[in-house]
Amino acid sequence: MHKSKIIKLLCLFVVVGLLAGCVVGCGGGSNEKATPEQGSKTESSTAPVKHDVVTMVMTSAADTLNPYNISGNYGDVIFDQIFDRLVYVTASGKVLPRLADSWEMSSDYKVATFHLNKNVKWHDGEPFTADDVVFTAQLITNKDVVSNRRSYFSSIEGTDENGVAAEPSKIGVVAVDPYTLEIHFKTPTDINAFLQLDSTRIYILPKHLLKDADPAHLDADPYFQKPVGTGCCIFDKQVPGERYELTANKDYFLGTPNFNKMVIRVMDAASIVPGLMSGEVDLTSAQGEVPISDWPLLKDAKGIVPASVKSYGYQYMTINCSKEYFKDARVRRAFSMAINRKNIIDQLLFGEGVIAVGPMPPHHPYFNQAIAGDPYDPEGAKALLQEAGWDFNRELEFFVPTGNKVRENSATLIQQDLAAVGVKTKLQVMDFTTEINYLRQSKGDLGLLGGAGSIDPDDVRILLAPGTNMNFSHYDDPSLFELATEARNKPTFEERKPLYDELQKKLVEEMPYVWLYHANVLMAHRDIFENIPVEDFPNLNYAAYSWTFKE
Amino acid sequence: MSELQKKRNSYYTDVFKRFKRHKLAMFGIAMLTIIILAVLLLPMIFKLDPYTTMVAPALSRPSVKFILGTDATGRDNFARLLYGGRVSLLVGLASTFISIIIGVPLGLIAAYYRGIAEIVIMRIVDIFMSFPSMVLIMVLVSIMGPSIWSVTVVIGVLEWTQFARQIYGTALSIREKEYIEAARAVGASDFRIITRYILPNSIAPILIAATFRTAAAMLQESTLSFLGMGVQPPQASWGNILYNAQSIAILSTRPWMWVPAGILLILTVLSVNFVGDGLRDALDPKMKV
């Protein structure tokens, strides 16, 4: 026989043997790699155990280290470690001090006063003061700055609904003295709305390092190559697209973290559970969840603690309302009625989620118990489409972002559901950032997106603001936005609830977005942690300074 | 039968006899026949549907009705395997065809006309060959938008160079043969000389290279689909079946979801390679290709 034939046969056997080996050998196997170092033994028996390197994982790199210009939430995993915000919002909605020790609202609900912690230092040793907050607000609301994340300033006096200030030096953020900050709101406001929603995206930047930055080219400022914050971790370096390395801030004002270094690794979802099992990864983040297909494996995995966390997040389908054929609400309702949401929950989420009636899940304090979402009614949907004069020959472009397997698979199910009522769609799979750009440019017809949600119901308002870059459906009827703004500007829960009930009712009637499902956030960590607030992760809060480790 | 015809017939019967002696090539032919017939006929016989979701609960285990179970959206895995085979084979064959259509004429022109044509064409070949093909394929496919057609066209348009070089080499030597000079003396046009004399005599290595290219193209499509850049859902291909198996749970607890596609891909590629080996030995045992 020719030598090449022998080699080819050998290859065949080797390959088949490898396959067989894979099938037999795969499964389980957790080799713990990192062993926690013992902290120095002092007389106190409660000396915290020090861990050397903690590795967290997320499934996509942050597109920039400027917290005011990122797309998506991947950067927030990093920002929560290196920056601080005014307060810390727990999963239950309780607001705890962070940069602000305490706060109170004026009796006319228009001025919030924050008493800032006096022990906060920037990573370079400079003291943090109220001037830094004022500077951050003035910088980001400057119209020359490119920012897609400043609508969170839009409740502050002196800004427009996009969070842009005509005259930044005059906006309602005032340093009364170095440790007392006043925020003046445009209208009477429920301080919880500001604390539980807006303030969660307001990361404080250092005045002394950015005061000479050119607002028009803020992203290009070298500061953002290695941002300096006040947070519990100091940014060390990044390997672009692969990992971010941080070191613990030993002088952190809320306590020295119990680890020396934190590494945030970027890995694709399929590698997360293998990473946990091999010890390469210590914990998941809300931006690096356990994929649902691997979730059942964690039940029996030794040394790994799974946690299915209810969140306020919601998944929805955008409908390009700038297109003529989508302007009729009956068409949008028909699409909603055509979709079998229960199937998605049962088959794709294995029950780890609930159907979405609107953007708020049933456990949300503002959830409107009285309304029901659209039932799964394909016949009714077809009838409604015929009534609205839908052209059944039309083929719609349906954008599907990668990075969330359940969402990708839901697109297939939704496509079939729509086809069953005669609506033709063509799926286009693309990465998340590309989809956001396409949607913002009003390309395509349908798209899938998710919102992180918030315990404050105002979260959905920016999706409804006509003409802004978060209105992915290009829904230009201002009435829903006005209702949401009115509801936001009432200062107490009792006054806001009826308005939000009305809003949720209208969101179902008008269906500018087709609300799909609320998925539980599937977290897991290796069994090295004693105390870790996994339930706060979906709120972009990691409280890394509070983590304690087992021996 | 004339002497010439008898000679031609006996040449091809010799080729066929030599091919039959090559055991692995016969195994390859048999395997390919089975696979091709299976992917073409079984779906019609059993009325298989790879697109409808929820024919059974998602991720069901193999059962009598669905012998390979269902995938994450409840589609029939067996149907997807067979339809996926169609796609993988189609991309392999069609892209090779495109490469041949581009490469062979270019190589022939360069070899026959020499001079400027040769310089320009062979430098173009060099330029194309200097790119790492897989990387360039990925870039072009993502620009054009991944789909079965963009994958076919891009692979076809980037992999023609080996055919051009191959036939250029062979045609260069044939061109010097006396019967070519005789044909020219009789007044045959360039076109006739190229197509009637040079091409048939230089086609053998092309055929062999075509089989190897087909196998390689199938692997390239699978790689692209495995990375999410090839054939898109709801269409199936062996590569994107493997893509959907990227999960430690599926790898370790649900082998029926990926082992069949992997095995079929390996078997098909190996079979095509064996056939290529057999052809090479049969057409000219002394030839070095």
UniProtKB/TrEMBL annotation, chain A:
It comes from the Bacteria. InterPro entries: Peptide/Ni-bd, SBP_5, SBP_5_dom. Signal peptide: none annotated. GO terms for molecular function: peptide transmembrane transporter activity. GO terms for biological process: peptide transport. PROSITE patterns: PROKAR_LIPOPROTEIN. It holds the Pfam family SBP_bac_5. Residues 95-462 form the Solute-binding protein family domain. GO terms for cellular component: ATP-binding cassette (ABC) transporter complex; periplasmic space. This is Peptide/nickel transport system substrate-binding protein. It comes from Tepidanaerobacter syntrophicus.
From TrEMBL, chain B:
It comes from the Bacteria. One of its GO terms (biological process) is transmembrane transport. Keywords: Cell membrane, Membrane, Transmembrane, Transmembrane helix, Transport. Coiled coil: none annotated. Its main location: membrane. It is a multi-pass membrane protein. Residues 85-276 form the ABC transmembrane type-1 domain. GO terms for cellular component: plasma membrane. It is found in: Cell membrane. The chain crosses the membrane at residues 24-46, 87-113, 134-158, 256-276. Belongs to the binding-protein-dependent transport system permease family. This is Peptide/nickel transport system permease protein. It comes from Tepidanaerobacter syntrophicus.
